Structures are given as C-alpha cells and as structure tokens.
Amino acid sequence: MSTHKILVVDDDKSIIEIVQAYLEQAGYSVLTATDGTTAMHLLHSEKPDLLILDLMLPDRDGWDITSTIRNDKRLATLPIIMLTARVSDSEKILGLELGADDYVTKPFNPREIVARVRANLRRRQFEQAEQTESLEVGPLQLDLGARTLMLNGESIEVTPTEFNLLKIFMESPGHTFGREILLEKALGYGYEGFGRTLDTHIRNLRKKIEPDPNNPIYIQTVYSIGYRLVEG
User: Fold this and answer.
1) What CA–CA distance (Å, rounded) separates 151 from 155?
2) Per the count of CB atoms within 10 A, which of 10, 138, 148, 184 is most buried?
3) pTM above 0.90, yes or no
4) What is the C-alpha to C-alpha distance for residues 49 and 199, in angstroms, rounded to an integer?
5) Which of 170, 168, 179, 181 is nearest to 223 (CA)?
6) How far is residue 164's CA from residue 193's CA, in Å, rounded to a whole number?
7) Which residue from 46, 113, 49, 115 is spatially nearest to 77, judged by alpha carbons?
8) Is 27 left (phi over 0), alpha (psi -120 to 50) or beta?
9) Average model confidence (pLDDT) for the chain?
10) Is the four-CA dihedral 157, 166, 75, 71 of positive or negative sign?
C-alpha cells in the first residue's frame, strides 16, 4: 500500500467522491477540500505529496492558489495537477505559466487521474533518490538533492517540471531534444496534451535564466525539432 497523501480540491462534491474512491482503491491516502481557504490550511497542516486542484472554486481560483504555492518556499516543489472544465489553450497555458505541472480537462476518466498521479509521484521518487549529485553548465548549477537552481551564484525558484527540464538539458549539454522526448522525460509518461505545453514551460524557464528571454543564449530553439542547452 502506498503511503502517499493526495489533496483533492474541487467544489463539486460528486467529483471529489469519484476521484477519492479511485485514488483510495489505488492505495493512496486522500484529503479533500471544496474551497481554497480549506485547501491552503490542509497544505500547511497535512503536507500532502501531490495536489489535484480544480480551477474554479468559490473563494479563490486555482490560478491564485497555484501562484501562492509556487511563491511559498515550504510548498514550492509540490506537484500540482490542475483539474478543470475549461478547455481553451490560453487558460491552460496560464495555469502552466503560474506553475502547474499537469492538466486534466473535465469530463475525464478517473483511471487517467490515477495514472497521472502515479507518474508524477514516481518521477518525484526518482528525483529524491538523487541525494548529492549536482550538475553545472556555464553559470547554471543544479543541486539534484536539494532540488535548487543557482545562476551566477544567485538562487532561482523553479517549478518541479522546470527543474526536470533543466536536469535533462544539463545532463546532455549541446544535445538537441525533440519535443515528445522532453515531455515524456519531464512529465514521466507519454503526454497527450496540447502542443504548446512544452513551449510554455520553456518560455517560463527563459524568463528566469536568460538575460533577454526574447534572445536566449542558454536554451536554444532548434527549429522543427525541439530544444538544446548550451553554455552561453
């Protein structure tokens, strides 16, 4: 049986019941909340291993909660799967830009939720197994144990998916990775989401590490193929 604790936040109690039932059947411990205030309380008091977060809540929307989590050092690395009935690319991209790691659109198959939870937690276990190793490329230094990024000696906050992408790049500097490979390696499974997901994560990384994100010197686009990291 898994000891992982999952927090499910949705104002639709029927959805919570379905997701909770499938997750508990899969061996997870499940916490639930129907509003953002309760969710934030549980995040701090119960310290779940993963958050499944509905976008539309009665008091605080999922975007606001995601932004708050990513700006809280105690919660910043928490994997977040957004769950929403909204389907426009712009809204999905906004969620990713604020720090969501994954996105599931309603209506959904509960088995898909379980599969994505497993993938995110499995990836996190692999990350935590790397205790002391660090990677350096030019002014970038990635501590795999502490899961921290330094740029020219300055700490840079990154989301779990951004960290995973940097790790992939920094393990093979100069190598060009295709989009599908990057998504599979960074998210832990064959990703079937919308095509701009990876580009959004890359754009977010560039905003954090590039002197001029519009003219990147570290993460370079290889047209029609994907991306590569160079020393700059």
Assistant:
1) 6
2) 10
3) no
4) 26
5) 179
6) 18
7) 49
8) left
9) 87
10) positive
